[in-house]
């Protein structure tokens, strides 16, 4: 999955070379502080399911607490300061990925969307179909755009963050002006887990 810097790689023709930033650093305040990344579906944690969804990535970084158990080969990072939001998490992830060989694309995923694996192949297909786009963003049938289930051209995403303090800011404040292309996904592909009702609906433990 994660390839050390300078290591040779073999990329199939037409493949989308991408890194992934998986966000797992929220407070989970509406769950009484229960870490959403550690919730399980069919025996696997949400962070494991999310990392598995991007198994084709050239490199993956999970941004979250130090005690979070991660799959082998995954980089670890922490937003600065801790709990300063997903925009800060993306910034920390981009910095951590600098140890790897560059990738043309960067995917951002929140780990609290159990069905996000359905969105990943659609985003990659969109990049293959429109390789010159600034990025591709998941959009549900009711028109909601989800910047935490999106695939950005790495240079574009890094430029959007350059010289700015991301702490306690929304991801949308960084990407709303980017000419991202909509990718239609099923509603449950980006449905997240915020409450105990959500936990039950997604059959999590």
How would you describe this protein?
This protein is an alpha/beta fold and 205 residues long. It has six helices and nine strands; from the N terminus they run βββαββαβαββααβα. The protein has helices spanning 46-53, 86-96, 120-129, 154-161, 172-175, 196-201; strands spanning 18-23, 40-41, 44-45, 59-63, 75-77, 105-110, 135-139, 145-153, 181-184. The strands form two sheets. The protein has a seven-stranded mixed beta sheet, with helices on both faces. The relative contact order is 0.19.
Task: Explain the layout of strands and helices.
Blueprint: E1 18-23, E2 40-41, E3 44-45, H1 46-53, E4 59-63, E5 75-77, H2 86-96, E6 105-110, H3 120-129, E7 135-139, E8 145-153, H4 154-161, H5 172-175, E9 181-184, H6 196-201
Parallel strand pairs: 1-4, 1-6, 4-5, 7-9
Antiparallel strand pairs: 2-3, 6-8, 7-8
Tally of domains: 1
CATH top level assignment? Alpha Beta
Q: Please trace the helix and strand order, writing H or E for each element.
A: EEEHEEHEHEEHHEH
Briefly note the structural class of the backbone: alpha/beta
CATH homologous group name: Spore Coat Polysaccharide Biosynthesis Protein SpsA, Chain A
Number of extended strands: 9
Q: Main β-sheet, in a few words?
A: 7 strands, mixed
Radius of gyration: 16 Å
CATH third-level topology: Spore Coat Polysaccharide Biosynthesis Protein SpsA, Chain A
Unreliable stretches: 2-10
Query: Number of helical runs?
Result: 6
Distance between the termini: 28 Å
Q: Could you tell me the mean pLDDT?
A: 90
Percent helix range:
10-25%
Arrangement of strands in the largest sheet: 5-4-1-6-8-7-9
Global morphology = globular
CATH architectural group:
Alpha-Beta Complex
């Amino acid at each position: 999955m994660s390839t050390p810097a300078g290591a040779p790689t073999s990329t199939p023709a037409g493949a989308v070379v991408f890194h992934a930033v998986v966000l797992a650093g929220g407070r989970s305040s509406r769950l009484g502080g229960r870490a959403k990344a550690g919730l399980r579906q069919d025996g696997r944690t949400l962070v494991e399911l999310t990392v598995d969804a991007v198994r084709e990535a050239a490199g993956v970084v999970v941004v979250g607490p130090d005690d979070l158990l991660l799959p082998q080969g995954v980089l670890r990072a922490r937003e600065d300061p801790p709990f300063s939001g997903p925009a800060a998490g993306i910034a920390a992830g981009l910095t951590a990925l600098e140890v790897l060989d560059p990738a043309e694309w960067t995917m951002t995923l929140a780990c609290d969307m159990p069905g996000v694996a359905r969105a990943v192949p659609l985003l990659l297909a969109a990049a293959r179909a429109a390789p010159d786009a600034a990025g591709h963003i998941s959009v549900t049938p009711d028109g909601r755009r989800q910047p935490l289930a999106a695939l950005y051209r790495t240079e574009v995403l890094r430029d959007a963050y350059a010289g700015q303090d991301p702490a306690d800011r929304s991801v949308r404040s960084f990407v709303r002006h980017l000419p991202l292309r909509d990718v239609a996904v099923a509603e449950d592909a980006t449905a997240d887990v915020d409450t105990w009702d959500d936990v039950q609906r997604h059959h999590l433990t």
